[in-house]
Amino acid sequence: MEFVLSAAIGVLAASGIWLLLRPRTFQVIIGLCLLSYAVNLFIFAMGRLWLGAPPIMPRGGFVNPAAYADPMPQALVLTAIVISFATTALFLVVIIVSRGMTGTDHVDGQER
Amino acid sequence: MTLSPEHLIIAPILIPFFAGALMLIYDERQRRAKLAISLAAVVAMLLSSVELLVRSKGSELTGGNDIGFYLLGDWLAPYGIVLVVDRLSAMMLVLTGLLALPALIYSAAGWHKQGQHFHTMFQFLLMGLNGAFLTGDLFNLFVFFEVLLAASYGLLLHGGGQLRVRAGLHYIATNLAASLLFLIGVSLVYGATGTLNMAHLSNLVPGLADQQRHLFHAGAALMGIAFLIKAGIWPLSFWLPTAYMAGAAPVTALFAIMTKVGVYVLIRLSFLMFGPHAAESSGFGTTALIAGGMATVTFGFLGVLASQGLGRMAAHLILVSSGTVLAATGFVLAGAGASILAAALFYLLSSTLATSALFLLIEPMSREEGGIAALLALTADAYGLDEREEDRQPEVGLAIPGTLSVLGLSFGVFVLALAGMPPLSGFIGKLGILRGLIATEAVSPWLSGSFIALLILSGFATLVGLVRIGIQTFWATEGEPPRVLALEIAPVLALAGLLFVLTIKADVTLRYMQQTANAMLQPSVYSEGVLGAPRAADAPVAEAPE
Fold first, then answer.
1. Is the confidence at residue B164, as pLDDT, over 90?
2. Where are the domains of chain A?
């Protein structure tokens, strides 16, 4: 499982960075999306990998903390997903405006 | 729960939040109402920040370091999010308020009419800034960074135009990538230490196992890169001049503090996590801060010399200012003494005020035909930029007499402050840094010597660049002087007045900064205070007000 997850994060991040460095705005935004997927998976993995362990403990009585997953990264990743979704949407709007104003989808607003 | 004075700590976040939300209800045509709400909110925010500052100075009994805490949701410190006010954050809060008020008054001269929801975004930006200064939790810091960045994306595009959209595109892409780096860093730090609370981290760092320490260092380095991008350190600062040139004047005047958020976080986290107490981790990142800061100063002053227009020059001056503070922080982290940090903080205060005022001056100074306007157009051609829209609506309002002399005098004040020439505050800050550098023996004399040379050289370059613009604008002009509204010149004069106050009251301010710097070098006061902050639910009922 560790290998699959780290390979997934690596591939997502690598393709994200490659796309981020491309000159077309559409490629840039797809690159940012892929990068944020990689980052979200990474945050999730930082809570260590668990199988079938719930993150929330029942109320009262003695509970064995080892049987539960770390809830913190799950909460963090939720926040990170929402924020990166919102900012990506905002970036998309700017990209469309730029396309409309300059007539090109080059990130510099003109072909070189 | 009654409204006790401790709730004041969250006021600088809540006031702009509610004011900004309230203004969304108003129609875009009701600008006067929005302006009134906005002004009231900024004044209230400034007053509460000043009260927090006075409180953080504390009494003699506590050694002059009163740290205020606010446990959100009344959860105990390492488990919940805590807001912390100490001297440094109180100072930054006041600085934010002092920049926001003139910028807002300036925007009333017509700038706020150029686009939608100016005041709402302005307030949300302030909320994000104040939150970033107050929070004591790394992930909460990320959230407030995103709040201020989202608002700044909107504000940068305020007024529209192709230039702004293009600059905004680069600005947003850079900052989104930086935020992702920040997230990776935060999660690595959490994975290595199991906490996100800055105070808790500061306690845990000395006892980390080797294996975790490497992970922790990697996380801290990634976070550091994200903050350095925001602070505009050299190889990562190419987005900055274009973005700052493109923004509307009141927006960029407030943006002057945006790089300082990065600087603030670096100062805060460096001393908490990598201070002298941190065993093997102490001094981590020192080399990067010193080298990066010095490279930034070099790039900044070369940019100042190469700039043809005041806008580009002011943007490079921002780089000089944050580079100077970053390098000075690096020197202090290497053990060069608290007095350098104190002087650097003083310099930060003075240079931020002066650059902000410079951004407000750009447009009135280049308003007339010919002179600098022609030069700007020429530069715009050379850089392949499009001309700004020139056909602005003729404004109604009170024009001031003797425009050129008022503009010229205030410009002169900012030149002196930025170049660090004797009578004004910039000199006091720079002198303090220089004196500390000469006295120190913690770093090699070559290193401190080259930073001294850079500081003097950058001051000289600033003087040459700004005086060149000044001569072109004020002495070599023909025809009618520009028409400048009183609403536009009043904030500039207010900022100039603040610089004078800072100079006259330099002993008080410097003493405050010295105490701040001493407190930064003793992170145990901060961390033990945060972790020992009592819950309101546990407090005795008849609690005496502080």
1. no
2. 2-56+63-102
